Amino acid sequence: MGVFSMADSDAAKGGSGAGKVRLDDIVARVIADPASAQGATLLTGFIGKGDADGRIRIYPDISFGWWYDVAEDDVLHSVPLSPESSPLGGS
C-alpha cells in the first residue's frame, strides 16, 4: 500500500493518460475524498452478530475458529460475494 509513481507514464511525460486506466468504482464508494483518505482494511468473510449491540463479527473462513470484532459504524462498504467466487456466501 502507498503511493506509486511511474516515471515513464504519459502523465510523467506531460500527457494526461486519460482513458488508459480504468478506475475501480469501489474506491469512490470507500474513499470519497482522496485528499483526506485514511487507511482502510479489506476484510472478506462471513458476517455474524457481535458480542454487543452495534458490533459485528467477521469470520474470515468457514471454520469460524477466529474472527474480527468490528463496530458496525466502522464499516465503510459491504457487498455480498458472488456464488461463483464463494459458493457458501459471505461478504
Describe the structure.
There is one protein chain. By secondary structure, the chain is mainly beta. About 5% of the residues lie in helices and about 15% in strands. It has one helix and three strands, in the order αβββ. A hairpin with a 5-residue loop joins strand 1 (about 45-50) and strand 2. The two termini are about 20 Å apart. The mean pLDDT is about 80.
Keywords:
single chain, 91 residues, mainly beta, 3-stranded antiparallel beta sheet, 3 strands
Helix content: under 10%
- Total number of helices: 1
Strands of the largest sheet, in order across it?
1-2-3
**Which spans of ≥5 residues are poorly predicted at pLDDT below 50?**
none
How many strands, which pairing sense, and closed or not: the largest β-sheet? Answer: 3 strands, antiparallel
Shape field: flat
Radius of gyration: 18 Å
Beta strand %: 5-15%
Give helix and strand order, one letter per element, not per position.
Answer: HEEE
Mean pLDDT: 82
Q: Give a count of the beta strands, DSSP E runs of length 2 or more.
A: 3
Distance between the termini: 22 Å
Summarize the entry for a quick read.
The protein has one helix at 25-30, and strands at residues 46-49, 55-59, 68-71. By secondary structure, the protein is mainly β. β2 (55-59) and β3 (68-71) form a beta hairpin.
Summarize the topology:
Blueprint: H1 25-30, E1 46-49, E2 55-59, E3 68-71
Antiparallel strand pairs: 1-2, 2-3
